[in-house]
Amino acid sequence: MQPKTEQLLATVETVIKNLTSGGSGIGSEGDHPFRPLVWSISEQGEFSFVKLLEASGLLTEINQQELIVIWRNRFIRPGRYSEASINRMISQALPQYQSLIEILQTQLEELRFFKIQTYNEKSGKAGSDGFRGYDLLGLIVGQTTTGD
Predict the structure, then answer these.
(1) What pLDDT sits at residue 127?
(2) CA-CA distance, 89 to 75, in Å (whole number)?
(3) Cβ 88 vs Cβ 62: under 8 Å
(4) Which of 8, 22, 122, 130 has the fewest CB atoms within 10 Å of its CB?
(5) Which InterPro entries is this protein grouped with (predicted)?
(6) Cα angle for residues 88, 89, 95 (degrees, 5° grid)
(7) What average pLDDT does the structure give for the chain?
C-alpha cells in the first residue's frame, strides 16, 4: 500500500472509530463500529460491487435445488401455515419453478444460480446460537445466444 494511502486509512479509522449507535452521530447497527474497506487492485483485481459481495461471502454461487429451497422458504414459512397447507403450496408452486427453470435452460447459455445473504460461514461470525445469516435473494443469471 502506498504511504499516502496508509495515512489516509489511518485518518479515516481515527474519525470513524467512535461512530456507533452507542456514540454520537449516525452510527452503524448495534455497537459495531464502521471500518474502512481497503481493496488492493494488484491483489484483488479491478473493484466492482459484485466482486465486493463475492469477496465478503455475501454473494455465492449455488445449485438449482438450493435456489428452489430459498424461493420456497421465502414464501412458505414454518409455523405460519399447517403442514397440509405447506404441502399444498409446494405442490402447486414447484411445477411453476421447474417450468421457469426449464424455459431458461432451453433459451439461455451458461445458466448460473446465486444467492445473496446477510452473512455466512465465509465471513462474519455466527452468534452463539449458530445463526449464519438470512438468504435475502435467489438469482438466476444466463446469457442469450445473441450475447445479452
Answers:
(1) 47
(2) 10
(3) no
(4) 130
(5) NucleaseA_inhib-like
(6) 100
(7) 77
Q: 74-88 pLDDT, tens per residue? A: 667 667 778 788 788
End-to-end CA distance of the chain: 38
| Residue 133: alpha-carbon gap to chain centroid | 9
Q: Is 4 exposed, middle or buried (0-12, 13-18, 19+ CB in 10 A)?
A: exposed
β-partners of residue 74 are none
**In sequence order, what are the residues at sequence separation of 6 or more whose Cβ sits closer than 8 angstroms to the Cβ of residue 40?**
1
- The answer to whether the beta carbons of residues 112 and 142 sit under 8 Å apart is yes
Q: What is the CA radius of gyration of the chain?
A: 21
